[in-house]
Amino acid sequence: MLPIAKLRAALAKPFLPAFFFFAGVTFDTITLTRIDRLLDNLIILLYLTLLGGLIVLTGRMGLKEASAEVSGSEGMGSPVLSNLVARTRSYYPMAIQFLLGGLFSAYTIFYSKSASLTTTAVFFAVLVAFLVANEFLRSRLAQLPLLVSLYALVCFSFFTFFFPVVTGVMNTGIFLLGSILSIVVVVALVRGIYKGLATSPSWAPALTTLPAVAVVVVLVGFYFLNWIPPVPLSLKFGGVYHKVENIEGRYHLTFEQDWYQFWKRSDNPLPAESRAYCFTAVFAPVRLNTTIYHHWQYRPFGARAAREYSTTDRVGIAISGGREAGYRSYTVKQRLAPGDWRVDVETEKGRVIGRVAFQVLEQTEAPSELKTIIY
Hints:
Elements (H helix, E strand, L loop, with lengths): L2 H9 L4 H16 L6 H29 L12 H9 L4 H21 L8 H13 L10 H24 L4 H23 L9 H21 L9 E8 L1 E5 L2 E7 L13 E2 L4 E8 L5 E11 L10 E11 L6 E7 L5 E8 L5 E10 L8 E5 L1
Helix pairs in contact: 2-5, 3-5, 3-7, 3-8, 5-6, 5-7, 7-8, 7-9, 8-9
């Protein structure tokens, strides 16, 4: 069997879609480092560009076949280019899966750093679901609205963190700008698919675009419900301590630790009526300056069934980006009552960057040995 024939036979195997899917995930995991790195964002932009081009080619050829036209005979440029596009068409679904797998894995990596076990996990769960579902994607004519909708999702996910990284501003206006641009890109994509295809119904482009626009509108609703992680911010480190001191630019964090508790890096539980220091390190891109909040909340032990926390304090902290280990800061709470406590690290709009949870108990045993770590 000739080498080309062997290659085609191998690519026809049923396991190939899964292979390309995991290849995209693996490649992104290795190459992507931090959300504000120029090369990382250029890689994602390249993926988006290639994916958009493949969707346009796939859509145009599918529409031409449905119209009983010769694939590639119109709108593909020179005969040589038309022939090349037609001959390579069978590989487009694999390439689309590779690019989607790479994009969704990149977003899963970036958004996982900002997601927490709160309502912000909803959008992260959507990304993970599409990351897995991508393996079963089949690029056919009947799925053209699905492909365009997926493209709207990957564009939206990119602009949500890209604009704050570039502008150094993180607010509702910047978010809505990214949402509008996502719709503009999708409209341009659909126009590229249907351009010059006179046999297509006049309403076909709108019907293809509508589901993608609906996706963006739903995701905008997610934002106002605080269901989208506050990328590009992420909690690098957090804990509660007996004492926090800033000595020559290095934070000394003191907590109780028994000899066998080698895994401990913070105080939990704390003795009642004590003073608690909540220390956090929040990563922000180089140009981003914003305000985060330590939202102290308390729930008495007897109210666990209702799971209702009440706010005791919400303290604003101005932070600036650029430090790899995160911008370090802390707040202090005096005379804590016994019960469940948590400190949500939030944006101004209440989106949770991370959470530090701990308990306060009545002192029943002798204090453990104090240990200090430096951050």
